[in-house]
Structures are given as structure tokens and as C-alpha cells.
Amino acid sequence: MAVLILDSEALSALARPRQSPQRHLRVRAALHSAARRGYPVRVPSAVLVELYRSSGIDEPIDHELGRGYARVITTGMRIARFAGHLLGHAGRRSEAAVDALVVATAVRLGGIILTHDPADLDLLAADQPNVRAAPI
Known about the structure:
- By secondary structure, the protein is an alpha/beta fold.
- It has helices spanning 8-15, 21-37, 45-51, 58-66, 77-90, 97-109, 118-124; strands at 3-6, 41-44, 70-73, 111-115, 131-135.
- The protein is built from seven helices and five strands.
- The longest helix is centred in the first third of the chain and has 17 residues, at 21-37.
């Protein structure tokens, strides 16, 4: 079974539909498709680091996560190490660390990553046959 993994752009599109109505609709459609197929939806906790900023900004994210269709998962040492190796293999620096954690989580779970920038995630996921980045 596949898992649908939301990166920061996908979760942001859900929580802030007015910023990009088209992305919001594409993410909603992907969630409906995942539900029909019985795919669980996961958000790596590192994604929240990119989104949380202050009062007034955090609440839409919390509201969306509180709806219960997605579960936030933490990454441990093994996933962190693997993410670091993905960065090294791709020749990327620490500015892509959250992306690497998202990809490493997807490798662990076998999943589809919903993202605005599939090229960056595909670079990190090279040689990982059980991961696919899908654009929003």
C-alpha cells in the first residue's frame, strides 16, 4: 500500500486556500483520491518547521491537521541519517534538509510526495524506486 505524504507547500495550500486556489483544489483532489484508494496521509514533523511562524499563521495549519485525515509523524535518528546521506548523494546542502527528511520518510513508508517542486524531491529520491513526487 502507498502512503500520500504532504510536504510544506501541499499542507500550506490546504491551510491557506486563498493564497493559491488552484493548488488548494489539486491537493484536495489528491486527498480524495488517497481516501478512495485507502492510502494513509502523513506529514513529517519537519514540514511544520517550515510552516510555523507565529500566532495568526500557525492556526490554519493546526486547524487543517485537526481535521484528522493526516497524521504527523516524527523522524528518528535512522531517518535523519538517511536524509543526510540523500543530501550528500545529491550534492545538496543543508538548505534542503527538510526536503531530504520528507524523501527519507517516503522511502521508509513507500509513498507519493505531494509537492509544488517535484524536481527537487526527484533529485533527492534518485535511485529510490518506491518514492514518487507528484506536482500540485
